[in-house]
Amino acid sequence: MNIRRRNRLWLICSILVGVGLTLALILYALRSSIDLFYTPGEIIYGKRETQQIPEVGQRLRVGGMVMPGSVVRDSDPVSNAVNITFTVYDAEGEVDVSYHGILPDLFKEGQGVVVQGELQENNHILAKEVLAKHDENYTPPEVEKAMQENHRRPAAAYKDNASWSRKLVAFYCAWR
């Protein structure tokens, strides 16, 4: 083997080792930030495809509905913090959730919720974040009022103003 081939072989091997180490370090760093999504039934019985049940201490996201009558608020007068416990359910099961903090405004019993936290023993979730789902048909009152006012405008208000568009084109051409 001549020197040129040997140098190329060393270069290729060192590049492959470098790329492999870089990928290994990236995957190791991302391992701690991966949150898998589960439903309450999947936490209890495992995912349908793999029958994989999450382990205690695993970070995860749980999506389901807040069970009516399950929300319990406990205030701490010293720190002015609120401890909330509630149950998230779906068609296959239910899990209990504990959260320390302020809940979103859209959080209600019987409403959809996504909880991000850590799985504790007995299928209990210690939540770090609670996201409330909302109805996709919801329109804020301000937007509703603006839409009603726009429908009362005469049709002439919606016509394109030709002089305005000419000024814009002239400005654009002068700027270039």
UniProtKB/TrEMBL annotation:
<dbReference type="GO" id="GO:0017004">
    <property type="term" value="P:cytochrome complex assembly"/>
</dbReference>
<dbReference type="GO" id="GO:0020037">
    <property type="term" value="F:heme binding"/>
</dbReference>
<feature type="binding site" description="axial binding residue">
    <location>
        <position position="138"/>
    </location>
    <ligand>
        <name>heme</name>
    </ligand>
</feature>
<keyword id="KW-0472">Membrane</keyword>
<dbReference type="InterPro" id="IPR004329">
    <property type="entry name" value="CcmE"/>
</dbReference>
<feature type="topological domain" description="Cytoplasmic">
    <location>
        <begin position="1"/>
        <end position="8"/>
    </location>
</feature>
<dbReference type="InterPro" id="IPR036127">
    <property type="entry name" value="CcmE-like_sf"/>
</dbReference>
<comment type="similarity">
    <text>Belongs to the CcmE/CycJ family.</text>
</comment>
<feature type="transmembrane region" description="Helical">
    <location>
        <begin position="9"/>
        <end position="30"/>
    </location>
</feature>
<dbReference type="GO" id="GO:0005886">
    <property type="term" value="C:plasma membrane"/>
</dbReference>
<protein>
    <recommendedName>
        <fullName>Cytochrome c-type biogenesis protein CcmE</fullName>
    </recommendedName>
</protein>
<keyword id="KW-0408">Iron</keyword>
<dbReference type="GO" id="GO:0046872">
    <property type="term" value="F:metal ion binding"/>
</dbReference>
<feature type="binding site" description="axial binding residue">
    <location>
        <position position="134"/>
    </location>
    <ligand>
        <name>heme</name>
    </ligand>
</feature>
<dbReference type="Pfam" id="PF03100">
    <property type="entry name" value="CcmE"/>
</dbReference>
<keyword id="KW-1133">Transmembrane helix</keyword>
<keyword id="KW-1003">Cell membrane</keyword>
<keyword id="KW-0735">Signal-anchor</keyword>
<feature type="topological domain" description="Extracellular">
    <location>
        <begin position="30"/>
        <end position="176"/>
    </location>
</feature>
<keyword id="KW-0479">Metal-binding</keyword>
<dbReference type="GO" id="GO:0017003">
    <property type="term" value="P:protein-heme linkage"/>
</dbReference>
<dbReference type="InterPro" id="IPR012340">
    <property type="entry name" value="NA-bd_OB-fold"/>
</dbReference>
<keyword id="KW-0812">Transmembrane</keyword>
<feature type="binding site" description="covalent">
    <location>
        <position position="134"/>
    </location>
    <ligand>
        <name>heme</name>
    </ligand>
</feature>
<keyword id="KW-0201">Cytochrome c-type biogenesis</keyword>
<comment type="function">
    <text>Heme chaperone required for the biogenesis of c-type cytochromes. Transiently binds heme delivered by CcmC and transfers the heme to apo-cytochromes in a process facilitated by CcmF and CcmH.</text>
</comment>
<keyword id="KW-0997">Cell inner membrane</keyword>
<keyword id="KW-0349">Heme</keyword>
